[in-house]
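Please review this pair:
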Amino acid sequence: MGMKIAHLDPEGGGTVREHLEKGRELEVAGKYKDAEKIYRSLIKRKLPAEQAFNRLMIVLRKEKEYLKEMAVINNAIEIFQAGQPKTKHKAQSKIHKLSLSLGKSTGLI
């Protein structure tokens, strides 16, 4: 799993971790739309959002919102690629192949 998240959340009170835990509780209760709102707010605030992206993709899959899920996947790829140093062509090619494969497996391509 990634880094531990305990940064303070400047807008919602509490920590990012607490918001992620609340989102997970809502998921378990079947309140996917409410969980989605929490994850989207964390992503929108540019907080450490790797886990928020992961949980949001899972929620959208459970809701059978495949087009929204694909948009989140593409957004996450763009954001995390922008934060990485330039990679070699081979790595970029692999990312492209994985994206195409995912798109085909979900029926979006």
Summary: The CA atoms of residues 11 and 45 lie 9 Å apart. Residues 1-10 have pLDDT under 50 and may be disordered. The radius of gyration is 15 Å.
